[in-house]
Amino acid sequence: MTRMHGALDFEKPLLDAESRLEELFSDAGGRFVSLEEVAKARRKIRRLRHDIFAKLTPWQRTQIARHPARPYFLDLAKLMFEDAVEIHGDRTFADDQSIVTLLARFEGRSVVAIGHQKGRNVKENIQRNFGMPNPEGYRKALRAMKLAEKFGKPVLSFIDTPGAYPGIGAEECGQFEAIARTIQEMTQLGVPVVCTVIGEGGSGGALAIGVGNRVLMLEHAIYSVISPEACAAILWRDDRSRAPEAAETLKISARDALGFGLIDEIVREPLGGAHRSPRWAANLLRRAIKRRLAEISGLAREELVRQREEKFMSMGRYTEGP
After folding, report:
1. 132, 161 in Cβ contact below 8 A?
2. N or C: which end of the chain has fewer CB within 10 A?
3. pTM score, two decimals?
């Protein structure tokens, strides 16, 4: 495997070992390569993979969730859906490209898919607003949801945003109303809804398209009311260097979310993260969504709504110890 763009600090020993294995073959120039050396290098790679990824900290998981090579919604859509057609615009103001809505076929059935979308470079990130939707993005998402309900199609949502855009213009255009209305309307949809946190699940910007009968989360994704950096800035007087400590305190990992009852399932990723094998990651996610969708596809409208209401009304409940 070649060295990956944007390698994280804790990944570097593994990437160096993989590079040395490649060099054994490239330096040989077609001559015989020692099988003993190759076997030794591969054993070292396996050991490093296990040692690094078996004990990731919450901050390291946050870095993986933000990895520049991690597959975004459209990357996964190309691998999971067929006959996808994009729906543009909110029919009111604009077409916010930080949220993408699709009519598509998934495992032989028609669905409506909605997802946050980030960019790979400066130009794309400006176009996608770094995956932070404006109000028109949520209104476009709601338009797609209502279309799904009208024609009886399941809704699949894919969450990957630092949060809704916090600019003055967004607030002037009703950011709070757009988020609140989308949450309210999504709760009442009469069709099955499966949501997946595929990267960053940031605050209300994530929850706005995260009200599902089943909520999944990729193994190295994060879900939190605030980013570790912003939390550190608030708690420790703008000391963002304490973001790793904040990540630990916030309990933002998939395992934490499952323990708190915020999600229903953790979807395994390829060892090292989804960016190491997007196709494999998409296949694992496809199978999980298919299974969860089958669980709820035969339920009546009233039961689907009841499930979503109970799931999200119970979030945040706690009991005091003795």
Report:
1. yes
2. C
3. 0.87
Residue 318 belongs to some domain of the structure: no
Full pLDDT tens readout for the chain, 322 residues: 334 455 677 766 666 667 666 666 565 555 556 666 667 767 776 777 766 777 888 999 999 999 999 999 999 999 999 999 999 999 989 899 999 999 999 999 999 999 999 999 999 999 999 999 999 999 999 999 999 999 999 999 999 999 999 999 999 999 999 999 999 999 999 999 999 999 999 988 999 999 999 999 999 999 999 989 889 988 888 787 899 999 999 999 999 999 999 999 999 999 888 998 999 999 999 999 999 999 999 999 999 999 999 998 888 766 676 6
Closest CA to 162 of 194, 114, 134, 199: 199
Q: What is the CATH number of the domain that holds 80?
A: 3.90.226.10
| Rounded CA separation 78/86 (Å) | 12
The reply to whether 120 and 267 lie within a common domain is yes
Q: Do 35 and 125 share a domain, yes or no? A: no
User: Are 149 and 25 members of one domain?
Assistant: no
Report the domain count for the chain: 2
Angle at 190 between CA 222 and CA 254, to 5 degrees: 15
